[in-house]
Amino acid sequence: PVTEELKAAGRRAAELDRAHVFHSWSAQDTLNPMTVVAAEGSAVWDGEGHRMLDFSSQMVNTNIGHQHPAVVKAIQEQAAKICTIAPAHVNDARSEAARLVAELAPEGMEHVFFTNAGADANEHAIRMARLHTGRHKVLSAYRSYHGGTNLAVNVTGDPRRWSNDLATEGAVHFLPSYPYRSYFHAETEEEEAERALEHLEHTILLEGPGTIAALILETVPGSAGVYVPPAGYLRGARELCRRHGIMFIADEVMVGFGRTGAWFALDHWDLDPDLITFAKGVNSGYVPLGGVIVSEAIRTTFGERVYPGGLTYSGHPLACAAAVATIGAMREEGMVENAKRMGEEVFAPRLAEIKEKHPSVGDVRGLGAFWAVELVKDRQTKEPLAPYGGSSEEMNRVVGALKAGGVLPFANFNRIHLAPPLNMTDEDLHTGLDVLDEALCVADEAIG
Ligand code: PLP
């Protein structure tokens, strides 16, 4: 229960926020941010004390939910022991976090370079690939997101790149495999994979394989639409990279650490990338942490040669202690297995019913605890309920109905994403899906 004191503190925080906080990705004068005064497990409480079910896991990072006691305790204990130490020193929390992360990665990937978050993990992975290959360009997909820093936002393939594009970073974009809105006029998954790979191969040949250092792909693209790749696509892309000496970077920032019902999403397709980037779920974002897992070949390149990169907080003890405790809690409580079950037993059947019932639903798709509902004006034409890169009155009303029903979603353009903590109870999951079911009537009405 939220006390009157907490509410008063929330009101004061909201005033100070408006007076002093400059927010991300926003026009500052148009904002009306929700105050959060408490968070626990799968729920947060707003400034008026309303409980909201967190179907966003914030930025799809609180995979273990809020305030997991084992992780809070590990951070407190580490803080009492050593809050911070330079990356050049050995530190037990960092060593153990690296061991655990490497243990979860595919065979032969034994070394981890820690960063502060996902964007800088991608920046470093690309830097490593460039130095390893002696090449410059980076291939990435349209409809992707790789982070907000200079290079990471330039390889990003969504509207967040448009105002930041320097066109000098060597980023080359290709069309992704996006079965629902196939760019290749494919009617089956097989056709989609085959034609998307053909397009990728043409892009590589036309750009000049000898100029391409890396291909970076989100294993399952996240904020760009949770569009699960068709069977064979990722392995085919990996093969093309191998054939042309291009480093394959799997961006597991959003999908790593259980989100899709496997420790890494690449486990679903038995992928063996040259580099894996991670952040978010590694410690559920309790303390900022990201990193790059490197193959033996790349580790060897920097055996004798200096790796020219680093960060003051690389492998920060508080963040690493949180990662050790998070991975431990996820294992003990079977959270990854639960995410898989949740996908198969709750999301897949319930979203199929929801699609059946609501004409505004064009597509539902996902894996584990990672789903998208794509809203359209017309199922035949697939015209989106909000334009690419924009919002609409109709989408705002759907999101409003979800929030009024006590559900915090992640909404983007014409899509509602559902990404709850991996340990949300089935009761809460069903409650949230009931609210979604109801909220979609607003969209049905809007499209008449
Ligand atoms: N890569 C992917 C796939 C992401 O989803 C994100 C963030 O949402 C990033 C990279 C960037 O991570 P960060 O915001 O921690 O820098």
UniProtKB/TrEMBL annotation:
A Pfam match: Aminotran_3
SUPFAM superfamilies xref list: PLP-dependent transferases
Superkingdom assignment: Bacteria
A GO MF label: transaminase activity
Transmembrane segments: none
InterPro entries recorded: Aminotrans_3, Aminotrans_3_PPA_site, PyrdxlP-dep_Trfase, PyrdxlP-dep_Trfase_major, PyrdxlP-dep_Trfase_small
Gene3D superfamilies referenced in this protein's UniProt entry, alphabetically: Aspartate Aminotransferase, domain 1, Type I PLP-dependent aspartate aminotransferase-like (Major domain)
Keyword entries, A-Z: Aminotransferase, Pyridoxal phosphate, Transferase
Family assignment from sequence similarity: Belongs to the class-III pyridoxal-phosphate-dependent aminotransferase family.
PANTHER family to which the protein is assigned, alphabetical: AMINOTRANSFERASE, AMINOTRANSFERASE CLASS-III
Protein name as it appears in the record: Aspartate aminotransferase family protein
Source organism of the structure: Micrococcus lylae
